Amino acid sequence: MGLFIEFLMAVLAAVIVEIVKIFLDKHTLERPWVKTFLRLLKDRLLRKRTLLYVAAILLVLVLSDLTPIRLGETVRVMVLGLPRQEQLVNDALKEFDRGNFQNAIDRSRTVISEYSPAAGREEHQLESQGESNWTEGKVPLGKAWEAMTVFSHGSLNSVALAWWITGRAQESLGRTCDAKRAYEATAGYSRAWTWDPQFWPIRGWSPFGWFWSPSDDVREKAKSLACQESQN
User: Which of these, 155, 151, 177, 154, lies nearest to 166 by C-alpha position?
Assistant: First the structure.
């Protein structure tokens, strides 16, 4: 399905290129304008050069997904929407930002219940392999390829952020003990990272984006937050 969508986008891009070329060449258009335009467009679309445009654009889209700047993935997300796991986390985060804290908790629970087993395996694997932890902040172009490894741990990153959202939402609702437990769970995913692309529209690496660690963000709060069970 993804490859088919990329093919359609490549065809569309090639058509746009030909349309632009027709309008740039003022000498080709004659009265009646519409009829002449359609005839020229039909002739151009059947040329080998246009097929080469389609092939070249499709190749760029496919190969880009092997790089930190994923044009093909960007096209697929534009058409199909975000992958389920990522969409669930985004929905929870949006609810939290809107102040709908219980909704944020409920959506985060869905992420946690579905992806916690995979997240635990990824955390354990990274620890057992002795993988060095990532550095918080922006990612320079020279480290863009390394950042792709962090992106590949989708379940780990999603579950850690879901627990972070849960803790923040519970604390906002005054449920101190529930918030503390959520923060402790977040702190347990020390190898998880959240990527903020800073409105960069292309999937993958962003020259303006940065990583931050949900675990580091709440570790001290998990220790210091006072919890009296009678409060909840």
Answer: 177
Q: What is the pLDDT of residues 206-227, one digit of tens each?
A: 999 999 999 999 988 888 888 7
- Which stretches within 46-138 are classed as H helix? 48-64, 71-80, 84-97, 101-128
Residues 73 and 65 sit within 8 Å (Cβ to Cβ): yes
Edge-to-edge strands, sheet with 194-196: 137-138, 210-212, 194-196
Determine the longest span between alpha carbons in the chain, in angstroms: 83
pTM: 0.82
Q: Decide if 187 contacts 215 (C-beta within 8 A).
A: yes
What does the pLDDT look like over 36-50, one tens digit per residue? 666 666 666 667 777
The conformational region for residue 200 under phi > 0 = left, psi -120 to 50 = alpha, else beta, is: beta
